[in-house]
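Translate structure to sequence.
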């Protein structure tokens, strides 16, 4: 029998192929002679001509050259710099189709990484208005021809794409960014030069409260102070009366990390307040809070439904941050225990519990995989564990801990379908069943998808 000769792709090669599905980074995924090709800008259902740009061992990346068959869901992007900015990946796809494709991303991850024959996945919880939803922006600055330019670095480069107005950000965020940029330019404040590691202002960070319209402004600086501080503060509060907090964060290192370890309040209050439903959250400059308050409330409401609390349960809120999920659930729980490795977050969580008159929530600095077994050995019997880890997932130590403790029910909030599915497979092997998976679109126009998964432990009789 003759064996089929393997096709070897090379850079610059032109290929024609159908696009079968959406990739995790928003690319169209197709197959050419059984080899996976990721085509930037292609939409599932299209037939494309593409140029091979990179060749790896198990896949290739390609640029879209032209469409032989165009998707009915292809639209004109709303943002004029969409293709160069890189912040969004799906503006060229009608939002109705985005929702369906994101559900398929979660579904595909469970098919690939678990042995579930039937995946209990629901429809994507979407937004009625999928624009102007972001409450925070952190933009680098550059000095170009005596102008202060603000924006985002283009994908895989250090080329700054200037952004005057971003359609996924709240209008007040856009307004604040541009006013502050203009003030810095007028005052001729030194701008950080990445190559020379000289200059002062590196980034502007703006966060607003959707409920109160308060603005928190953070300047990321290479130096601990600069001569124009008082003039800068004076102009900001004159031109932006909504500003309630101005902070200087010191980052002296040659690094791609935005925030440094030291912060100093320049003016106003250390925190601004956001409100979701009846719950108030106080947010310091470095406190993590979801970027889309509208969808965050929906997420917490879904977590509450899945939790099915009666008032008698002990809940562990791992990766608790500033206590957002735990405080939301505390109203219907007997006791809430939260932990996080960041001391500032735990201080915020304690303060948020006080502000919301919750006296049965405790927050501790530490790692969940260390604290949970210690508490269980002392007699704690948690009824529910809620986890909301970063993109890398739970980590093996915490998975082993959860399997050892044998908590009856878990709710896993995830921003990465692949790590979610991989973690769930280990939990399934350890005796848990996936009862429900709910995709939630936290970031319309991007390839990111949040999801909420309910797992219950099998009862052996």
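Result:
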């Amino acid at each position: 029998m003759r064996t089929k000769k393997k096709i070897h792709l090379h850079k610059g090669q032109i290929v024609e192929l159908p696009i079968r599905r959406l990739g995790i980074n928003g690319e169209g995924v197709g197959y050419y002679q059984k080899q996976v090709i990721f085509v930037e800008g292609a939409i599932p259902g299209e037939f494309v001509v593409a140029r091979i740009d990179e060749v790896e061992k198990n896949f290739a990346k390609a640029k879209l050259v032209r469409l032989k068959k165009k998707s009915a869901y292809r639209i004109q992007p709303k943002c004029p710099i969409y293709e160069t900015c890189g912040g969004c990946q799906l503006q060229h796809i009608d939002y109705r189709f985005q929702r369906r494709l994101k559900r398929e991303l979660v579904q595909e991850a469970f098919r690939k990484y678990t042995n579930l024959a039937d995946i209990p996945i629901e429809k994507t919880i979407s937004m009625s208005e999928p624009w102007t939803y972001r409450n925070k922006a952190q933009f680098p600055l550059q000095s170009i021809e005596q102008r202060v330019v603000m924006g985002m670095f283009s994908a895989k480069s250090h080329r700054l794409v200037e952004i005057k107005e971003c359609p996924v950000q709240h209008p007040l965020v856009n307004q604040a960014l541009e006013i502050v940029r203009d003030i810095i330019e007028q005052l001729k404040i030194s701008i950080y030069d990445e190559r020379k590691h000289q200059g002062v202002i590196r980034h502007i960070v703006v966060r607003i409260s959707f409920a109160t319209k308060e603005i928190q402004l953070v300047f990321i600086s290479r130096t601990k102070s600069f001569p124009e501080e008082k003039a800068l503060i004076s102009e900001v509060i004159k031109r932006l009366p909504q500003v309630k907090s101005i902070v200087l964060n010191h980052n002296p290192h040659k690094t791609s990390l935005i925030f440094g370890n030291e912060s100093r309040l320049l003016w106003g209050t250390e925190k601004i307040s956001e409100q979701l439903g009846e719950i108030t959250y106080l947010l310091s400059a470095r406190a993590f809070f979801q970027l889309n308050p509208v969808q965050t409330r929906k997420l917490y409401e879904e977590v509450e439904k899945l939790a099915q609390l009666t008032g008698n349960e002990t809940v562990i809120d791992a990766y608790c941050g500033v206590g957002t999920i735990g405080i939301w659930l505390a109203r219907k729980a007997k006791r809430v225990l939260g932990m996080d490795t960041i001391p500032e977050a735990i201080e915020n969580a304690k303060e948020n519990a006080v502000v919301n008159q919750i006296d049965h929530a405790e927050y501790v600095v530490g790692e969940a995989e260390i604290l949970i077994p210690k508490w269980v050995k002392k007699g704690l019997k948690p009824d529910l564990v809620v986890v909301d880890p970063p993109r890398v997932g739970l980590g093996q130590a915490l998975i082993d801990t959860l399997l050892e403790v044998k908590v009856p029910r878990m709710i896993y909030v995830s921003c990465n379908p692949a790590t979610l599915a991989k973690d769930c497979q280990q939990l399934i092997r350890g005796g848990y069943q996936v009862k429900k998976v709910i995709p939630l679109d936290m970031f319309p126009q991007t390839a990111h998808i949040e999801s909420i998964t309910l797992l219950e432990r099998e009862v052996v009789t």
